[in-house]
Amino acid sequence: MSFRMRAMGSLALVGAILAVSALCAGAGQVDPDPWQGYSFFFGNLHSHTSYSDGVLTPTDAFIVARDAADMDFLAVTDHGYYMQESTNLHHWYQALAEADAMYEPGRFVTLIGFEWTFTDGHMNGLDTPVAASRDTHRDMQAFIDFLIEHDGIGVFNHPNYDIQPNWNDFEYRGDADRQVALLEVGSGPYRHNITNERAYQRALNRGWHVGAASNQDNHRADWGTATPARTGVVAPELTRESILAALRAMRTYATEDRNVRAFLACQAQPMGSSVEAVRREDGGFVSLQFRVLVDDPDADDILASVEIVSNAGTVWRDEPNRPGVYDAAFELLPSSSYTWFYLRARQADGDLIVSSPVWATSGSGLAACDLEVVDRVPQAGRELKVRAEIVNRNDEPVRGCQASLFVADDAGRRRVATATLDLPAARGTEVLFSFVPEREGKCRLELQLEAEGFTGDAPDVFVGAAVEVRKAGLPKIIIDEGHNNRYSGYMNRFVALLADLGMEPVASRRAIDGEVLRGARVLVVNMPEEGFALTPTRFAEAEIDALADFVLGGGSILISGWSAADDGSRDPGDLNRLLEKLSAAMRFVENPEPGEEVSAAARHMGGVVEASWAGGAIRAEEARPLLVGEGPDVVAVACGTEVEQPFAALQETGQGRVAVLAAPTFSDYDLFRTGYSNAEFVAAIMEWLCGGGWPGR
Amino acid sequence: MKRFAVLTLSLLLLVIVSLGSSVAAKKVEITFWHAMGAQLGDTLESLVSEFNAQSPDVFVRAEYQGNYGALSQKLVGALVARKPPTMAQVYGNWAAEYIDGNELVPVEKFVYGPNGLSTLEIEDIWDGLRAGCMFDGVWYTMPFNKSVYVLVYNKDAFDEAGIANPPATWQELLEAAERLTIRDGDKIVRYGIGLRPNVDIFACFFFNSGGEWLDAAGKVNVNGPAGIRALQFMTDLLHKYKVAYYVPGYLDADFGAEKVAMYLTTSPGLSYTEESVAGKFNWTAAPLPYADPAFKSTPVAGTDLAIFARASQEEQEAAWKFIKWLIEPRQTAKWAIGTSYIPIRKSAMHLEMMQKWFAEHPRDEQSLQQLRYIKYDPNIAAWSTIRNDISEAVEKVFLGRATPKEALDEAVTKANARL
User: Fold this and answer.
1) Low-confidence residues of chain A: pLDDT under 50
2) CA A421, CA A403: separation in Å to the nearest integer?
């Protein structure tokens, strides 16, 4: 390859910076035109008019964008379903005619596209002779076929996980990847609209070659004026052909500043390009030469930071903190055989700039992502499952691909599992490995792929998540979800907290008996909910006996109340019977008086509780108050001792321990919230249940 | 000679033109703004043509204004410009706003007038639909394109899962959704049911949980036990049981692609479902499941016909003639057959064409089963904004950002401040 470089040193740290040489403007600069002859144009590729659900006409939109917003180009992209034969087809042709009338090469480029609104996610289509709509093209494949038929340009619109499933989380499809050129890293008529970096990175990780755009999605007469945010296009000239070619080539960036010029080059290739990631004989990669240019013509726009972001995280950073032309050249290593790099710059006023990526690939057409452990708490000596997704970006299937899982740690790099895979063309394939880690400690996962005719001399290597293997025999915490007592979807944060504490959380949907409890240190039981359920809503007598035997014989139990709402949805009767069998001094209040539960819980929220729980606030949205009687066995009442109906109580009984909470402060809603966290309180309880002491006692 | 011929021809043309205009002048021309596109628009156009052909004194100019959003915008603009159409399709809360501005003529003025409807005819209009057209005890609008929500389900998937009947209760819905959900390790290949984070789908659960939008004092009442139970149940389907997923957009394509085995839609949505399924599997529709049989209900959707007060007396009467004709059993049956909206007249069900249609399209009949149980949005001007407050609450809970109680409390605070 022409850009193959000599090997640089022997640093093996993947993704590390080899050498950095930030060049200030003019200082030591020899390149006569670092901008490679390109000009920079600013515009918006997503807007609406009254031809769908916006206002006025495309002509009005073009005039506002050109004259009031000082843009170089605007695409009017009304919703396709407004412009079909059965509705207002003439609007489509009228829009095209208006765009032609307003087009002035060298001054203002007018484009007409359409928005296709499908549940998987909305997309824009540009450079097609007709519009598609959700009525005529009723699924993703139909829309992609439409783009292929007309060689149109696709754009992933507002890829916000809160509002759309993002095309099945950017599941890779090669035919679509060839047509979809851009993703709205910034979307909407807001000043700081670059909010979709997570989706951008997800798409890149899953193999998509898409560039960055920041569009306004205008529905009012504010085309371009709604916000300074723009899509920056790097092109030789301001013509339709040149702009469209730049969009297809992904020579673009998303910017919240109206006129900043940003340029990223790798091996002298501009953003949007792919270069080869060359392997050295020792297995590492040859470094790549990067060049970053940022120039804001406004003297008061200060460039605060410049970063290179890749699938290995932020791999390069500088904080110039000054206005003017910024020019830096440096070398970086690819982290894997499929590595993307993009430029992220921030100005002192908060404006963000995100460029299209450059890709460094081995040329095999393979990419891998999501190399991670499936099990929540890896333990030495116990089987560990690891998954990964391998994306075959080639147009042909890859047969007999040898996939090897390596573990790298202080002791070296070892192959621990292999699989032979047939990878279908232009699709992702999930692979599952399992192996038994021998030693505890931190390690890193690596996936190595060898495919004849694809991977060449050196195999492809992809680096995955860092993994902490814990020692064997962690305390096992069983969380009961066999009694309609809200585990799934409500305890994710609790489970993560337990893993962090070095405990092993296990959910159980089975009826409770000695077998389920075997080897368990703590059982967590939430008060069951009556009503619509897939599991029993009551505890059988035998289950209560098994629970009592477990605790009295040395186990621990955490029992939590839930809603005290007087709607019959929760009945503490079974759990109170268990407490009775445990000779516990506390009970749930059976039928709280209306309002009683509110005052009882309120008294234990925030400041009041801090008096007895030094660690911080305890809050829960709903609580069923406790009654705690006098008794020599009550060794600790965690909080609320001064009130009749406390929020939490702990007691040693028989050989075991019991903790009772009025409400699950460990639910996803209550563990962490804006302004407070119950994590420390919950951790203290779990550690006490595992045999530890109570803080401050 | 040649000149004479030209002159004769011109005279002839003049005579024809004046004849034509004198014929047209006999008819009162009225404008009817609507939002019925595609197949719905075709059916409406054919009814309007039929009316125009047979009416000796009224000519209806039906004008498609785009979707409901566009229609609403144009109506508001036209009212500001004091040039509204003679009649239009309106939602209850639009009508409430227009009534506040004295822009509508109560339809009861004509219903009880000399060319009005008999008591039998009035009672032949489904009670619930009529009730939805009352504003402070005054009958203002005429039900037109009305639909109810139904549960659409994949019959083949039900058969494979060994589920004999569509779920009637929430418990059955939950169990069916669980059995219809296909899991492959961590991934879910097909969800039992698809939901949407909006007020309409919430209403399908809220009403079936015993909810009423407003309490006796006229305050928004969505945060009571019925609302919390409904939203909690929907959220549980999503997050606790993981047998549902939700998307903001339409679900017919997802149903057609077998990503979900059930979803809720209005009766006209069935034609989209038919297109999306495209014969890949058998499917049908059933009434909405309920929390308790006592709560059995369905929200009614769609618009009513309103006559604008700015129209002349003559035009108003002409509009009434058209409306009266349009809701005759035969026309309402034709409308129902062409669009899957429900026929607003009970007697339309006995017409041969309707019976034949239901025999061939059992799915459409499911909507009618629900007509006895309909509930509708309050006819108050603030309702369109309050709908957004409730949709926001539903979305917030689906996203795990609030408990049902928190989110609904917030929505109620906002909503009641708008009343």
Assistant:
1) 1-29, 598-612
2) 7
